Structures are given as C-alpha cells and as structure tokens.
C-alpha cells in the first residue's frame, strides 16, 4: 500500500513539474513575440528582464525538484507574468504581437467590415 502511495505522489509531482515548465515556456514564448516598447509603456520592467526571468524559471523547473524553493520562485514569476504583465502589455498592443499587424491584426480601421471599409 505504501509503495502505491509513493508511486501516486511521484506521478503527481511529475505532472506538477510539467505544468510549471509549460507555464514558464508559454510565458517565455509570449514575451519573446511582444513589442519591447509595450513593456515600458505598461510600466512592467522591460522585455529583456522578463525574457531572462522566464528563461530562468523554465530552466529551474526542469533541473530542480518541485520541493525546492527555486521552482516555486519560478512558478511565482511565471504566474505574475501571465496574470499581470501579459494583460497590460496585450492591452497596449491591441492583442497583436511583434510585427504581426496592429489592432485588428490586419492593420484595418475600426470601421472596416469583413470585406473592406464600411461606407453605410
């Protein structure tokens, strides 16, 4: 019975490790494609800062046991990026990333319909 309990605990910890790595990887990927000026305009440090922090979070979540402090700190950094920094930066860029359009994603104005400008 004790052996089964340990296997279940190890499985849970392995799953938790994968979740923490996924959070950090998503944050890192997202930050890499956001515009640098949006980070400063939102007052959320700068892009390089978040790339370094999220990169470290990804590495420590991979290398260290979940029971140590480093992956926990990495998880906190990833969560702060996802719930605070990302929405602020996304709001300033209209949801667009890097150079992939502005605002609506196609560079159109707010009066554009699905087939071009609306002149009604």
TrEMBL record:
Residues 111-120 have a biased composition (Low complexity). The chain crosses the membrane at residues 12-29, 50-83. Signal peptide: none annotated. Pfam families: DUF2516. InterPro entries: DUF2516. Keywords: Membrane, Transmembrane, Transmembrane helix. The keyword Ligase does not apply. Residues 92-120 are annotated as: Disordered. Residues 95-110 have a biased composition (Gly residues). This is DUF2516 family protein.
């Amino acid at each position: 019975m004790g052996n089964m309990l340990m296997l279940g605990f190890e499985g849970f910890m392995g799953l938790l490790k994968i979740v923490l790595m996924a959070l950090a990887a998503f944050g890192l990927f997202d930050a890499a494609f956001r515009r640098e000026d949006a980070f400063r305009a939102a007052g959320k440090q700068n892009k390089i800062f978040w790339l370094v922090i999220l990169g470290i979070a990804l590495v420590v979540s991979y290398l260290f046991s979940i029971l140590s402090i480093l992956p926990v700190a990495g998880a906190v950094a990833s969560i702060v990026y996802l719930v605070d920094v990302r929405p602020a930066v996304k709001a300033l860029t209209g949801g667009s990333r890097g150079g992939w359009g502005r605002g609506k994603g196609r560079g159109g104005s707010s009066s554009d319909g699905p087939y071009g400008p609306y002149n009604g």
